[in-house]
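for the recovery benchmark. tokens below, seq after
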């Protein structure tokens, strides 16, 4: 198996560090931040490819130790609509899908949080807004629907 590392877009690294490594940190780790961003990106169908990757990717086992590997599986299964994506030889593909949705989610977060001195308030507002949209059945978001999953 190749890298088993999760890349971050170079243009998002300073923003992630603001959310994880500063006095106004709202996430404990980069893995926490990327996982939240991937779900947000997935929910909004936003998954731009990473144009340029930051130098230090995060080891996949960090996500596994925090039980976030389930997100990689669920998002990839829904995107690919094929259970074969869960095969061991597809790990890099699952990582790539996750990276793209995390990148999209980071774009959403960056647009809503960037000018804030304290990112906690806008982040809480995003969470509240997203949960309200989910309970109201927002038609512009994507949900995890495994009913069409192909299993060979």
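predicted aa per position
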């Amino acid at each position: 198996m190749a890298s088993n590392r999760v890349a971050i877009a170079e243009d998002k690294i300073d923003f992630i560090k603001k959310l994880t490594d500063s006095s106004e940190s709202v996430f404990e780790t980069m893995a926490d931040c990327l996982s939240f961003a991937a779900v947000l990106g997935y929910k909004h169908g936003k998954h731009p490819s990473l144009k340029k990757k930051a130098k230090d990717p995060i080891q996949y086992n960090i996500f596994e130790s925090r039980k976030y590997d389930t997100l990689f599986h669920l998002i990839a299964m829904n995107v690919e609509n094929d259970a074969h994506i869960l095969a061991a030889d597809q790990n890099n593909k699952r990582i790539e899908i996750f990276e793209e949705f995390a990148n999209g989610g980071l774009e959403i977060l960056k647009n809503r949080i960037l000018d804030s001195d304290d990112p906690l308030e806008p982040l809480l507002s995003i969470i509240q807004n997203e949960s309200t949209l989910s309970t109201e059945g927002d038609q512009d978001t994507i949900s995890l629907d495994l009913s069409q999953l192909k299993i060979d």
